[in-house]
Queue: 3 jobs
Job 1
Amino acid sequence: MKSLKVVWISLFDSLRDLLPIIVVIGFFQFAVLQQPIPNFGEIAVGILFVVIGLTLFVQGLNMGLFPIGESMANAFASKGNIFWLLCFAFALGFGTTIAEPALIAVADEAAIVAANGGMIENSPPSLNSYATGLRLTVAISVGIAIMIGVFRIVMGWPIQYLIVVGYLGVVIMTVFAPKEIVGIAYDSGGVTTSTITVPLVTALGVGLASSIKGRNPMIDGFGLIAFASLTPMIFVMGYGMLV
Amino acid sequence: MIHILTDLIYAIAATVWDVLPIALVIFGFQLFILRKPIPNLKKILTGFLLVLLGLGFFLEGLQAALFPLGRLMAQQLTDPVFIAGDDVGRILQWWDYQWVYLFAFAIGFSTTIAEPSLLAVAIKANQVSAGSIGTWGLRIAVAIGVAIGIALGVFRIITGTPLYWYIISGYVLVLAQTMFAPRMIIALAYDSGGVTTSTVTVPLVAALGLGLASTVPGRNPLLDGFGLIAFASLFPIMSVLAYAQLSEWRNRRSNKPIT
């Protein structure tokens, strides 16, 4: 009985999270564009799916993704082997990015931009190899980002020093990179961090900061995502210069 | 109705495919490097299953309900015929696009509130800070940042000013705020830039950018359609830092004895 009540409450929470979108779309559809809602039944089912999905996701987050991230962070901290910890950080960043659907879409568009700008030949094989190269570049850059971020947590460096270096990197690369790639590069920072990566990486960072002596999980534990959205910009502009 | 169900199965299968490399990394390191059994393995596997099912439902629901409507809306709102109103054929200025700015702001705010990865970070931040960072406070601060960012990004596409001007001035502002913000919030604020833009925000915002870049005269969709995501991941950093500064300032003021 009690668990049923919990399910109702979390379903209600998800509905509340979704409500702003429904209001915005409803307002623009009726008041501004003054058009009826097409396929009302399908939309109602879709909204129901979104609510169920969000509820299941939050349950799974607390049962699966957060505990595994934290228990691995603890295990690595007690093992005390920084080499394997950094390898794990790289593999996690690389592995979660290479299969990211948003990145695949952006890489394909970037290849078209490059072909239009005359940087590469406009044929399917060269478009394909450009897009694949770009995806690998971004995945490697996210791997390096998580690695640097984990190393920062271990060393306890203040995050802003590393971020300043990253910002300077972005500014310098912007000066030299071909104009066509800049927009895509800036966007690629945002698309790399998927819905599964974020909770895992956050739990890893917070878990590490809580199990290493002298680190504060609030000050040191966050920040891994910040690196993961900064390095792709630098690497993608670098890729645009080299290819 | 049947096609929604088959699409749902496809969406879940696609999520499994995305999760595969992550699962390989986690279980590979657990088995070969850490060589320790996973505590509560059954519960964790159930959790993974719930996340997979949840994301499958979530994505399919968005595809069936919100994305088509949102995309159509972005197209209609950026259509020059709608913007010019009765006076078709006149040259449009940047202030003629009020509805587009309002839509950009509203859609940025509302999609961010529904973003599952932001919810995850907010839950974690609430736990770690022992409740002093409220989940709603953080989410609303981030959502306001995204809303302002996307509205400004839309302004940039309409006026055709270079993207890097905005981003570099944004960086300067972020660094200036960092010097004055409470230390506790800095890492979380930087993180909130990256988490805002994933499953819900990116498709709707990309449609808005492409719609505008293909209808505003003199813009190239391939060049000017990009950049909105960059705005949406920079501005939340500022709004979260501002939120922390504001609450610190209010605390200090209320603690000050009345003279």
Job 2
Amino acid sequence: MSRQSETALIIGAGLQGCSIALFLARAGWNVTLLDKNVAGRHASSVNAGGLRMLMRDWREYPLSQRAMEHWEHLDRLVGEKAASACEVRLGVSQIGLALDDAEMSWAVGRAEDMKKRGLGEEELLSREDVRALLPGVSDTALGGLISRRDGHANPAAATRAFREAAVAAGARIVENCRVLGLERVRGGGWRAETSFGQHEGGVLINCGGAWGARVAVMAGQTLPLKTVAPSMMVTARTQPFLTPVVIGIDRPLSFKQSAVGSLVIGGGILGKPCPDQDTSFTVMDRMPQSAAATLEAFPALAHVPVLRTWTGLEGATPDGIPVIGPGQDTPDLWHVFGFCGHGFQLSPAVGEAVAKSLVSGTLEATLAPFDCGRFASRVAA
Amino acid sequence: MTQTTDMRPSVPMDADIIIVGCGPAGMTAAIELAEANCSVIVLDMQPTPGGQIFRNLEDNISQKSSDKQKLLAALGPAYRAGADLIRRFRASSRIDYRPLTTVWEVRPDGTVGWLRGVDAGYLRATTVILAHGAMERPVPFPGWTLPGVMTAGAVQTLLKAGNLKPTGNVVLVGTGPLLLLLATQLHKLGVKPTLIARTDRFSDGLRAMRHLRRNGLLPVIKGLGWLAQLKRAGVRMVSGLSDIAAEGEQKVEAVSFTAKGLRVRQACDLLVVHDGIVPAIDIPNGAGLALQWDQANASWRPRTTPDGLASSTLPPDLQPERCAVRITGDARRIGGAEAAIAHGQLTAQAILAELGKGSGISSKSQQAVDRTLSVRPFLDTAFPPGLSATLPDDNTIVCRCEELTAGALREKIRTGFSNMDALRGETRCGMGPCQGRNCMITAARLIEEAHGACVPTPPVFRGRPPIRPLPLGALAGLNGLDPSATELLTLEDKPEHDVEATSDVPAE
């Protein structure tokens, strides 16, 4: 049975929350987003902006493919002007670089596996291929994997675009509004007690990001989530030489050259999260490994100075993919968080699939792998 | 993969005390501490001891050429006065002096990140003394980024380090003792300034009179001496000017300003600007130390106890048991060389007392600090910030690393980017090589202009390491790492793809 004019209360006005709000509002729902800071303050705006299908967990692949279609036609979702501000660069490709035999054999296995599953967007690259594609790459590079459709976008602008599109579609965003408690409303729905009054909704959607498990606890549900602080380094500007995004296979490496020429180096090195203070700290002691991995791939960059670093707060689940779906026995409470550092690309498809599922009353097939119950059953077993 | 919650150093200490900066305050503290048998490491960016004030003094004094003698005469007795301090510093065998070393991170627990050439690492000590000094107040005005516009401090650096003298039409604009001192020095070197244009007014001097203290008379007399010399030399001087602009195509060709209601234009080859000096706060801000606003000097400074102890603002998880950082000299509070020496000594005495050595802060040291700082209220009133008094117009560049104008920043602030980090993220203001050292105060004031004053302290950019550029190669080989802090923590997101391994996972 389809539900045409329900109310939804979304906790967390990050990219996922705003994307869900956009699709729900367009479906005629009355949507309110609450955010303890300002919309998009955390991981949504400060991630590296990768639009990557390469080396994605196969369980995320169908959702990721659908998301890529949205990114390719972002103007249809958020309007032409906002879409152009998002600096979506697709087709520059992302390359998984194999620097030793173990990484190369993993790449070969991965390519076969994806072919077997019929998820064929990744191609194997030879030693000669990576040399041609990546000027300055180390002589030790053995090859790798490429996903040619991949690219990147400006995360802060994209978060803003989804937010503004959601508001234009009728969603309401209440900022600086910290949820203090959640309770069921007699007769259905949820009430949030906040630092900024009470808010109610027929359906409650927990898009709490790094704080998602804490929000779940307020609703009496336990989900495993670790708060992490992925960190990035940015160098001085150098001569443009690199178009694709390069990521490591076993090495902590993620590497791209920005439009202004600076190198943006990530790779999942973690800083110190301080979720109680809404902040996180760079731990420079861990950065040498990221710098070393970068130089192993591109030895000529040793002289390039790192100018700054940054970190952001993110939630990570034990199995590396998010929870997306209703809580146990709570069809009117959904959890959508724990994207483990790769939720940016998925967001348009997440918003669409969650909204479709809620409106139709039937869970979209693409969301099946992200069921919250997978952790409960693991505990039971 | 457990998260390290205890960030305190668990590796051996490299020294009792690490001192950042080898100017008068750093050298004085180092000598005092070494004499009491403490092990001291001194890190400094320059090749030789002396700081800004005694820059290259050893070399200049050792050479007998007439050029050098002339330079020494011009730089005056206050410069030569540092020779004895440097000699004592060099003579101490317990001081491990490391020149040409840049500090790119300091932590409240006593950890210091350093870079020398292509080597970098961490050092740890029970106490860290920040004696890194001051910087000139940033002054964005139309044309300030043109070649040929220099600060007074930069001209002095070239004089002291390279005996390089400006040629042609030299105009000095701004305020403060350093501007007048430099004009006198240039004149003695045979470079007669074409014009000294001051933003301070006669009335500022009058108002300052009530702050005159007997102890502070000497510097005032010295300053009056400079003015008299310049007057005797027939150097043209105007005061009370406003609305300065540097003009020129490829380089500065002229300076224009308003004085007594009239627009004045003066051709020049070199425009020297100076608007007073302020404590350099990049290290304290990057360390998460508390800052405060110094209204009299219109600048931030670190919040410290009178004996220099800083306080950490880090969250409880990162908070060390005790803050290991003390701040002294101009880095703590602008006072000049004598005040820096006095406070460096006082800080050393406080540290020794903490270590159970010595007899605490001597009344002589306390009196020296009070005496040397007693002229500050007079100077702050007599030379109020002038070039930076009004905010730049829309066309003027504020962030020179990223070439951002005040207008571009104002527009973003109007459209909602009204906190410092949001503004930085949106515009890249403060993201360049200087990491906001030059634009931070102006960005903060532009936000205050739009939204009202942020009392008590204007907002700062969140400081994160490295606060100075750190080459990838040096970072990759970082030494002195604490093994417990370097445990590889990464986001494990390499997907499992092995069919056997995943076959028991229910497919959709």
Job 3
Amino acid sequence: MADIVQSLCVPSSYKDQQYRGSTTDLEKDLANSTTLYVGNLSFYTTEEQIYELFSKCGEIKRIIMGLDKFQKTPCGFCFVEYYHHQDALDCMKYVNTTKLDERIIRTDLDPGYRDGRQYGRGRSGGQVRDEYRQDYDQGRGGWGHVRAKQLEAQRAHRQKEEYEAITTIPTGAGEYKGKSAASSQQHHKRERPDDEEKETQGREKNPRFREDRSDDEDEMQTDV
Amino acid sequence: MDYPRGNRRNEGERKKYRGKTFQCQFATFKKEDRRRDNRRPRERGREHEQQDLDQTPESHLSSLIVMLGDNTQPTELYKNIEELSKILQADFGKFSQVILKTIKSWRVQIRLLIIKELPMSSSIYATLVGLINVGKSDIAKAMVTEASETLQQNLDEGDWRGVKLIMKFLVELTNANVIQPETLLRIYGNLLSVLDEPVIKKRRADTFIKIVLSTLPYIGKRLKDREPINFEQMLNKIQSYFNARAQFGDHNYSDIILSALQPYYGEDPPYPCDDVFLILWEQIKKLSNENWECPILLRPWSKYDSVFITADQHDVKDFNLPGDSERLQYLYPEPLFKIFVGSENNSDIPETSTIEHFIINDLIRDIIDIFEINRKECIRYLKEIPSKFSSGTFDQIPQTKSAIKQENAETSSWPVQDDDMNTDDDDKEITNSWKLEKIIVEVIFEQIFKLPHPTYKPIYYHSLLTEACKALSDIFPPQLEFYTVALRNRTSNVATVFGIVLELDPLHPQLCFVRETLEKIIRYSYYERIKTTLPEEFLAIFPPSEPTTNFRYDKDHILNGLSATLLAQLRSKSTVDQIQATLEQARAFYPESSSSEQDDAIRDLFLQCVLLVGSKSFSHVLNVIERYLAILQSLNATPEARKHTVFIFLGILLDKLLNYRVIDAIAIITWVFSEDSEKDFALNNNETIQNLENSLNMVLKEQKEVLLAVFQNFTKTINNRLKEHQDRRIEDLLSSQWWFWWAYGFFREVGRAYSTQYAKFIVTLETLVITPDIDPKIENILSIIKALSNNQDTVTISQI
């Protein structure tokens, strides 16, 4: 109704780089869109929670969870598709920038889901924003990937600096003397958590993830 | 899909895209003036870009105009009005030819938009027009003409709020001496001509008279002073309508509607839920007795009275009331909604008997409706309300009058009156100190509980409350908390202490309220999280364990092996034929059963497996249903089969199955009213009723059938219970029998919400339902349906 303030139900300035079509096509798609992109979700937020919140604006046709390209686990975004355009608009007005799972989520009108868009496009498999993120975010796997690598490099460097080779060998250690050099090197290696360890850190157990019950991770695909 | 915020590569393209495509016509207002203190630094870059794109002289002017209404500092207000009137006049000199030729040019339209969208500032804008009128009366004339044309247009469209706001603007223009009081009375006369119609229809007349009454407080004093006789006549005419209306008394639709829409029903409401329209008339009469003094209203024009006196006044064209037609939706009677009543100290909100109560609540309502498209802006405007009233009205924004005077003396370039010579009531000290946040809470909840439907989806109001908590973080949350407690205590209208709630009958509304709130919270979050935050005594009504699957074919079951095969096949996406083959094997386990019993077993097995596979997530269940839709449909060919499916799927997926046409709405309805589920009626109430509504919404084709089934089932169930209670001589069913309380409440709700649909075959319904021994309670639902759906209120008042 009001024209002197900007409506909240307009698409943001984001343009999907992989969208195939002209700007006019995009405009047309968005003008009738029933699909929303939802971002800044916690990795732990379940589909049911999303369903519960977003169904307040209208009946949901389907939810497509955004998945890590390699691990096929939720990586903090999803698509919500309604039956009616108006419901998607209402969602922009009422749900955008509210909190779900104690995080402020972001919604945006979307030209429509296509197969393949459910995967993160970051180098490490998740979303690009998690690649370059500088802060620590527990709900999204801790540090951003690039930052995590930097921190790790710093830590390793520092450790190397502060590392002092044992110069005075305590008495009684004589019998191990021969092995000491080799063992200290091994020690050094073990201290530094290598890629393997980091991987498991990033993949902390998700308590709300019902993976124990079945094994078909790729069910999210919509092979209608 | 990603949002690479840190990625600078796309910045250029993004700008282009934003500038070209989704630029709302008037976005400049927001971009330029609204970005305030709390903008995040990240967006600053965009702001500049935005300004560059939109800085045309037109948009610059428009933003200035909007900004005028925004101004919260009264000290600057007068200065700004004067400045702006000069700018506009100068600017108009350049474009006047164009404007006078095309009266609907942007400038005039924008001003009218502002009138209709910034209702809180109409007195300020009227003052602006008043000043323009002094210098360039042709601009003011054009505006008056445009306003009256818009008025006619809004009337024809039945946009009652638009009519009201334009009227309010015309009223303020009269105050600013742009329109003569005599002219205004003639316009009022146009509206009141509804009372001269040969047959006066109540809701139609109420609608127009309400518009008149809501604008009177702003002009009453001037009309009384300048046109005492004609004004008196007008009030007498309205009074005689109210007399006739009251005499008409019982058996009219308005009263039935009023009682059907009351927020409280039953024996003992916490306050009388009278019609707001009648209350408004009482408030106006009180105001009239007080010589139309309404000190809370801002009167910026009074400062320029001596200037305005030299200006021309403009005529307003007469307008015609739209003829009575199906298209016009007249206002429903509106029962008074209050939360803060009773023994609590409520001196910090306006009293219901005073016109201030109406003025403030009505303004808040308008703002909430108008700014639905942007809840953040909505809260900002709500927050600024105190600056639109005299100082001292609300207990915020401290300001000193002497400061204003000094400021004015220094800056005004007009020969203004000395403030001491202003109308005498200006000097009255106002020390109401009302709490704006308390009134806002009350109005938002009034909107949420508005019957038969809230104006917008309830989630809008919820988000609005959240925004209010953010924007007014010190003062708003306590009011909300206070309200929530009041609401819980008033559920079912019986006051209790919280702890006692837990020991109530499981069907007691208060217990249901608490339990369902908890269940809702779990669904938004997760079981463990909520459980750990609850006080121990609540665990009694908290689900004992995390929600999980309840698979029938465990290892003791004869079909366990087969079910395992089936599950594996479902997960590996086997073809429909393969699944069919596996299902057929089940027959071998029941060699002695009839073929239909075998069918039942197969269906049960399949449904259970589908549910188990689907239990992983919403997407899983939809995928599995979509993939094996053919099987589901073939298994559900008969009504009994569908009923069975409904029973298994319960509330969870009914709407989906309905959508996929696996089941039909009748099956759900039969299930809801079946013996088994009757005892859970209240326990499952929320889902059940939602399912009912979904079914109703979806099946337009079968609508009549479905609605009839619902009504008949309700009637049957309630009648049975009534008889039972009659035999046991239990009286006062509504307050003693919770089951009845719930069931009858739902029945009312269905009747109220679907009145328009029901109205289409009301005759069929009556012949089916009405029997000689029909209970008055059921008859009451029928009359609600009839009253609500009947826009053309046939109950009329003979001419006054």
